[in-house]
Amino acid sequence: MLVSYKWLSEYLDLSKISAKELSDQMSLTGIEVEGVEVPQEGLKKIVVGEVKECIPHPDSDHLSICQVDIGEEGLSQIVCGAPNVKAGIKVIVALPGSRITGNQKIKKGKMRGEVSNGMICSLQELGYSDNVIPKAYSDGIYYMPEEAVNGSDVFPYLDMDDSIIELSITPNRADALSMRGVAYEVGAIYRQTPSFNDEVLEEDTTENAADYLEVEVADSKDAPAYQVRIIKDVKIAESPVWLQNRLMNEGIRPINNVVDVTNYILLLFGQPLHAFDYAKLASKKILVRRGKVDEELITLDGEMRKVSEENIVITNGEIPVALAGVMGGANSEITEGTTTVALEAALFNPLSIRRTSKQFNLRSESSSRFEKGINQVTFGEACDVAAAMIARLAGGTVVAGKSIGSEITPQEVSVSITLKRINQYLGTSLTSKVVDEIFAALGFDFKMEKETYVVSVPPRRWDIKIEADLIEEVARIFGYDNLPSTLPKGETVAGSLTTGQKNVREIKALLEGCGLSEAISYALTTEAKAAQFRMRESNLTRLQWPMSEERSVLRMNLISGLLDDTAYNVARKNSNVALYEIGRVFYQENDSLKHLPYEEQHLGIALSGNSQVKDWQTKETAFDFFSLKGMIEEIFEALGVSDKITYEATTEMKEMHPGRTALVKLNDQVIGFIGQVHPTIAKAYEISETYVAELNLHGMVEEQNDALVYENVSKFPAISRDIALLVNETVTNQELTETIWSNAGKFLKEVHLFDVYQGDNIEPGKKSMAYSLTFVNGEATLVDEEITKSMTKVEKALTEKYNVVIR
């Protein structure tokens, strides 16, 4: 919301309060000020000039040579390229040595051989945006008013010496989306009551609006209040300069005297209005209803809109003439030929307006106010003031009465609260005198009943409904900076981490020690990505009103987010990526909105590129399956569950490489997976060969681990024996090591695979695997007979179970 300091000063006495001081005070009382801008800042030596003579440039078909009166003794020659320059107009002149927008300095020079003493400026060259400049001057220079004095600064005539305060209005304070609302707020801060000098309505009692138009509302829930006033005999023209300046400073393009009044009232009251050309309605009826299937409307922006049953439309009884609360139709637009205006004022269903504006991607000042709420008390008053202004500025006559389709009676809200409760919440010792003054400053009527305030909240503050709202109002106006600072009271206890939190921190430390970086991805994603890499079947958890399709459902995996992060890095030439993320995934057992999703904490890892970069003494080494497997085994070891973990090859996950993927099991329960991303999926993400793993941390952390038993280092020597096996290539290392452990006896302390070979001298379908077995007896020295006996049992078991050949 942009607030004009000059405009605000018409309602309150701000003579002793600067715009900067005002903005600081408003920030302290709860409405954040984004900044204060004075449009003329950075501009200098820009004056009013009058073009006395204008002739074509002899060496150009688009330049003109102008003789301009800038308040000096002689005329100043300026070469101008604007198509609308002519003799007899007053213009904006940037003198030699002046500065225009962008800190650009204007110098005396020549254009095609002709001397130019400065520049005749457009509004764009003073810093105005293209979308706020009146259409008549959008492609040329701006004409100053006739009363402007030659040679004087242009800034006062354009209100560029005003201070524009930008407010950041939260949804609960929609009452401040109007100048009147801001005036009440500032009045409360400085203990003033705003005084509004609204236009007085005069009606022609010889006719009645009901004779011109019948208004019907099909469903009062869609439009709780709807009325139309008729202004006849209007003449469409440009608005006066003061009104154009006010709208441009508020970021709105002036159109004509009728449309500009509706926008002015929007800013003043926060009440959106719409003006129809009465003759173009082609009927004497307005019907407010829901749209019909395949019904179409061309809106004011020239776009064809196909409405639906979710949209509220304004019709002439038959066809739509406006999208209610969002945008008018081109078939009823105010144009130069308009002579009779039907002025609509309404309150529409906020949810329906929100859906319509989102459906058609039409966000406007009007729709945003309908969505957030409107002051029901000034609904009719805003329409009356607008009709009076149109009659004055367009020379029209207001027909007596209104055509009413629906009405609403605003109700004051009464909220009770005690002084004790206010002080208890705020930690203050406010007296009733102070609180009385605050309620009076806010314009709230109140009375005291047995030490309890009964406060009547006016409908203009529809955000106040409960006692907590009143406490906030007292705190705001008293001043947040005046509230006392206190330390917490009571006993304190030593804090500590839960077992799960400790384990998560340990996992993070381990992975970062392995060279990984933590990533934090969005929990919201697309339906397709949410369904990838799932560890279990689940329904999608959809948002009712997502910001975009890319953020429409809750994720069911971490890998898709990590692959997005990997692709982001690869696209920026960072091809060696090692990331991990610990976050929640969301499973939905039931599609009903009454059931919340089940949350599960997961660990995701993604490796792509090289783990070792080539330099003068080392070769580059790419990440592979075993790089990742080694990392997660470090985690299992740290959590004390490594002896309960098994791996099982799988081809069921379509997003993973069928020959390089395994399920991870804890006590025969699947807790995750590890492997290579399928090449087609990697191509879709535009990344190279990538290895990923995802584990259910909840399952690992909750596992009841065996207590650690510390042993003394054996005083007796360890003995190692190697064994080389020729086995079928389908036999896994896990199967062989399990067999070794179960048959080697109690003195076996370690099994280490140190060689795997396939190739020359090995028959097809076979592989050679070599293990080193370490035996230790903590109570005596082992002898060869014991070791030989253990090795014999191992060899026999391997031969019988897997038909191995001992090499």
Automatic annotation (TrEMBL):
Query: From its record, what is one biological process in GO terms?
Result: phenylalanyl-tRNA aminoacylation
The chain positions of domain B5 read: 410-485
Subcellular location, record wording: Cytoplasm
Q: Does the keyword Cytoplasm belong to this entry? A: yes
Q: Name one GO cellular component term.
A: phenylalanine-tRNA ligase complex
Record's keyword terms, sorted? Aminoacyl-tRNA synthetase, ATP-binding, Cytoplasm, Ligase, Magnesium, Metal-binding, Nucleotide-binding, Protein biosynthesis, RNA-binding, tRNA-binding
The residues forming a coiled coil are none
- Sorted alphabetically, which InterPro entries does this protein's record hold? aa-tRNA-synth_II/BPL/LPL, B3/B4_tRNA-bd, DNA-bd_dom_put_sf, Fdx_antiC-bd, Fdx_antiC-bd_sf, NA-bd_OB-fold, Phe-tRNA-ligase_IIc_bsu, Phe-tRNA-ligase_IIc_bsu_bact
Protein origin, superkingdom: Bacteria
User: Which terms in the Gene Ontology molecular function aspect does this entry carry?
Assistant: ATP binding; catalytic activity, acting on a protein; magnesium ion binding; phenylalanine-tRNA ligase activity; transferase activity; tRNA binding
Binding-site list for Mg(2+): D463, D469, E472, E473
EC nos: 6.1.1.20
List the catalytic activities from the record. Answer: tRNA(Phe) + L-phenylalanine + ATP = L-phenylalanyl-tRNA(Phe) + AMP + diphosphate + H(+)
This chain belongs to which protein, by name? Phenylalanine--tRNA ligase beta subunit
Gene coding for it: pheT
